[in-house]
Every structure is written in C-alpha cells, then in structure tokens.
C-alpha cells in the first residue's frame, strides 16, 4: 500500500483534529456497485450528470472526458487523488475502484474500450 | 443489584479492556499528531523599520488574508485584497434567516431560520488556547460566549447497543470510570501491579481510584450514594416529605464495554475540546465582520483570480470581476496568497516546481453540516439538554444543541449533522432537500420529537462550496515531510498562508498564525532588501 492508503488511514485523526470527534464518518464505503459508488461519492464533486461544475475553481466533467481513454489513468486518480481531490480509493476495495472506473468509462456518453481489473488497481496502490 | 453482572471470564474481560484502552490510546496518539502544541501566537507581529513603501497584494479575505492586511497596513505597507466571494470571511461564516447560498451544481438555498437563529457552516468553536484568534476577537470587538462542548446530560448513541436507545453521557462516563476504577483496585489488591507500584504507592493509588471512580468503602462501584453522586439518581433529591433520593443502577461492565460508547468520552478529553471553548455571540460570521470593520476598505470583492505572474520586480495578478465579467490586473511588490489549494492548483502561476508540487499535494477533506429549525427547543424543554453535543453511530455523527439563548420560547436551531468520510460524500452528492430528509430520519431515532416539531433546514457540503472545493487541507506525516516547508517558504515574491500552511488543519488559528509567520518573513526581507 502506497502513500494514498497511508493518507487515508490517518484521515479520521485529522478529521478529529478539526471536527473533533471519534465517530467522524465511516472509513470504508461498504458494499456498493460501480453505479452506486458514482452516485454516492464521485457525484459529490463531479455531479450526478458527470458534467462537473465551476466556481473559484472547477471540477472537471467526466462525461466525454478524453483522459478516461486509458483506464489506468482514472484508476490511478481514484487511488492516489489529484490536486485537491482526496484519494477516495482508500474507502474502496480494489474491485470497487475497478467497478466505478468502468462504470464512468461506459456511461455519460463515454464508450471507452477495455475494462479495468481489480488486479490492476492493486498494482497501483 | 449490588454487584455488576460479570458473566464472562477474566480473560474475556481483560481482553476487552485491552481493546478499549488500546483503541483510545491510539486515538489520542493519532489526534495529537496534528495538534501537538498550543498556538505559538505571541501577540501581533512587530513590523518595525523602513518598509520602503512596499506594496503587498493579498489574495483571499478570510481570516488569514485579513490578519495579514490588518498588520501589514498598520506597518505602513500598501495593501490590496482580492476576494472571490461577495462577502469577506471565507470559511468564517454564518448562515441565518434570509441568507442565500448557491453551491456548485447550482442548488440554491435560502435559509429560513427565525431571527437570532443560525448555523456556522465552517468553524464553530474557539478553544481557549487559540490565542491568536482570541486576541483579534478581543481587539476587533467580537464578543465571545462559552461554547458547550461537553454536556453530561446529552446523549451517546449506538444503534447496536442498548436496543438503539440513546444513553446519557453522564451514565456512560461515570460507569466507565467507576468500573475501570474498581477493576484496577482489584488488581492492586491482588498484588498484580507489585512489579511497578510499591506497597505505599499502591495505597495512594487505591485512594485515587476511589476518588476518581466514585467507589464505595469496599472499593466497589455499585448502586448507592457514591455512584449516583456521579451518574445521577433515579429520583432526584427533593425538599420536604418527598425529599429522599433514589439511587440509580449502574450499567454492568460487560454491556458498557461492548456498547463502545466510551469512545465519545476519549474524544472529549482531547486538547482542542477542553474547556473553555468560545463561540462569537451571533455566530462565527462575527469574526469576519470584526475584521471587515478594520480592513474591509482594502478588499475588492467578486474578484476571481485567474493568473498569478511574478518577475524580479513584482507580482501581477489577473482577475475577473464575477459581476461584470471584466478582466483586470493588480500588481504589487509582493503577493500573499491564501487561496485554498484545490482552487490555487488550477490557477496559472509561475512558481518553482517545488511549490507547484506542494500546492498539488494536499487533498481537501469532506465535511457536511446540516442545520434544522424546530418550533420549540424540545431538547431543553423535554430532555434538559442545554447546549453540548450528542454523539451517534448514525451517519449524521452528531447533534449539537445551541449554546446560547437557553430557555428561549421561540423556534430553535440544532446542528443536526456534522460528518465527513463516506457518509459525508454521500450527503454531499445528495440534493439539499434530500440531506435534510436523511438527517431528520436519523435524528428521529434519538429525538422522536423531530418530525412533529420540524420547520426547515439548510445544509452546507464543503466539497460543493464554490470558493474552497473542500473543507480543509488534509496533510499526512509523509506529505508534510515532503511538501510542507516548500509550501510555506518564499517563492520569488510569493508567499502562501492559510490553515493549509499550518499545523492547525481546519482551524482559524492556523490561518492567523500562518499569516503572521508569513508577513514577519516578508517584512524581514523588505527591511534587509
């Protein structure tokens, strides 16, 4: 397990440092399909239509995003995080990371070929 | 009912206590990682000497930016502040009746609270050791009042324990201390600690345990005057003929340990939860207003920074007026940038690869708060809960009762949810109406009055906040080791400040101390230059 997993393993303590409470949110998402992970986690920032949003900064659209062409890239972003994006892969199993990446790569108008496998996610961590 | 029921073996019991102590010890250690010391604030900076008419452009009018604006302008610097929002304060913010808030994705909420009611979507408490923030509150005329962190009559709640029935904090704390005290006393008396505690010290320890755990003359934690003196009575003492109190039954040790409810007690022994904790009278937005009175005239609002460029002579910032769409530029000798890192990472700027990497190395935590307004303060009237926090394993995580205007007969506002982690993301991904509905559903399991008394609600999910894209910078030991110094050090003519450039993740004190540290270094350079 690399940096990203270490990062999240400590997240409850950091949340506690700010928010101050032991039960500050569950660490793992629990059972969920790729679609459910998208609607419950990814959509928090990328929005339910996967079109992103813009304020002082922006959340990129996942719909029609050419950066999803190679599945390993979104898998890596989910596991490691990117810029302000937390390494949410730490809340997910390898299979869940693969499931959500594959879901996004095959929905919202995306039709990218080649599914990501759990073993590939494991190798990224 | 004089003895706790202990239907398990000694080994079971010790293993459970080991687990309990281990977990809470680990928790304390983890908590202290980011919170090791008191604020190193030693009073406002003394920026003496000739600043040669230097100018500083400050990006962001949160507490970090406004602290810097205040002290730099006092020292004679030419100061201008650019702010994205239509208000100052940043995360130091209060939502009250009539306020409108539009989150990313476009959902707009208009807070419908009655006059005087509010929630603080961001910071909501000021520990006594946040010397910098308290200093500026005092100086800027921001009135403070006590924030109730611990309320022994509030609840701790685990859906998997006590049939899902919430327990009073005082019962759990008194019984946990009492049982642990009794067990440790038994160990002392059995000579189990003879290797580490001398006979004389053992006598002292026994007396200490009796005092700490409310043990009886036989070193037992049992139903009686001593334990009820801590946890409260079944029938409270009265006057006259009905005066005789009836003691209450402690919870047995096995049930107590397995309930996991002792976790909340450890959390409240944290340094940043120790009394006294303050809140500004009228909400945290009063901190923003205090600074605004002092430096508001230096702030240009509705200004979205699009590029930050520096050369050997100065710094030029491009920004867009979010009302008119006009693109403009501002220049100064130096730039103090307090823009939250997820936003800054997207702004074109010519800085060193080290600073650029540091800006991209800090993910922002998720966090959601939901305020609920009810027709009456049933928590006070029905449950005798005056301020403080109820903790639950339900996804809302906690319920905080207002620490002000006790006994008010009008509508009251609860903080019905404050949560991060997986539940935080899920709430963030929901609509504001869905968030309120879920929080009502969870809270009803603790306060059945919820549905009948509910009036309206408002929510802030920090990953949907347009000016931060997250709640606060989330450092790890590894990322601090690699990037923290690079984030804080001078890069040409640019310096960063904000809670992300501090060891106070998510606290305003981090913004203030980082701003003071930054402008002190800036001033030293100007004087030396």
Automatic annotation (TrEMBL), chain B:
Belongs to the tryptophan 2-monooxygenase family. This is Tryptophan 2-monooxygenase. It comes from the Bacteria. One of its GO terms (biological process) is amino acid catabolic process. PANTHER family: AMINE OXIDASE, FLAVIN MONOAMINE OXIDASE. Pathway: Plant hormone metabolism; auxin biosynthesis. Residues 226-247 are annotated as: Disordered. It catalyses: L-tryptophan + O2 = indole-3-acetamide + CO2 + H2O. Residues 63-518 form the Amine oxidase domain. One of its GO terms (molecular function) is L-amino-acid oxidase activity. Its EC number is 1.13.12.3. PROSITE patterns: TAT (PS51318).
